[in-house]
Specification:
0% strand; Arc Repressor Mutant, subunit A; DNA-binding; TetR/AcrR family transcriptional regulator; transcription regulation; DNA-binding transcription factor activity; HTH_TetR; mainly alpha
Length: 206
């Protein structure tokens, strides 16, 4: 039996949480009815908040990105004023998420499921640019940003191809990457490609 929809914000949150689970399991082609049942709301109630499946999937992708951004900012040490503080928050938040074995798998499944929905690729492109601008303002050398961010992202999904995560290795890698953020020099004398450049720092980045 569907729950009564008295709190719009709570209903929206319930639908997004249910959609995350269902889309990760069944793909972006899952029906609105299936998502509504999983959320315990009526189909009409769901459509009151999201006018179509594509609109819901787009909101779901945006919510996933915003939740991660909130985790990163929450993981930044308020007392840390050294260069690289945001990248350290990124490393901490990412490795904290890995501790929940289902999170990386769900994230990968979600991304694969929603990437072809209209608007999602553009949303992810803008999010990538936002992080590049944030990190450009973080004060570290570009080489360090690239290596540390990509290594962190890779650690998040490595367990999917290795039959699970080795937690002692992850703990060591986490501390290793964090330590790398406290130096600002380049890793190697490798010239940046002429046809690629790091984004300029946005005036909106704090």
């Amino acid at each position: 039996m569907a729950v009564r929809e008295r709190d719009p914000a709570r209903t929206r949150r319930t639908v997004l949480d249910a959609a995350t689970r269902v889309v990760a399991e069944k793909g972006a082609g899952v029906s609105i009815d299936t998502i509504a049942r999983a959320a315990g709301v009526s189909k009409g109630g769901l459509l009151h908040h999201f006018r179509s499946r594509d609109e819901l999937i787009l909101a779901l992708a945006e919510d996933m990105l915003e939740q991660f951004a909130a985790m990163v900012h929450a993981a930044v040490d308020p007392a840390d004023r050294a260069e690289g503080r945001l990248l350290r928050g990124y490393v901490r938040a990412s490795f904290d998420a890995i501790r929940d074995e289902t999170s990386p798998a769900e994230h990968v499944a979600m991304t694969a499921a929603v990437v072809n929905v209209p608007g999602v690729s553009e949303l992810m492109r803008r999010d990538k640019q936002r992080w590049e601008e944030f990190f450009a303002a973080d004060g570290l050398d570009l080489q360090r940003i690239l290596v540390i961010q990509r290594a962190t992202d890779g650690a998040s999904i490595a367990g999917l191809y290795e039959g699970g995560h080795q937690h002692q290795e992850l703990a060591y890698m986490r501390e290793l990457l964090l330590a790398m953020t406290y130096a600002s020099t380049p890793f190697a004398d490798v010239q940046q490609p002429a046809d690629w450049s790091w984004p300029s720092v946005s005036t909106d980045v704090e």
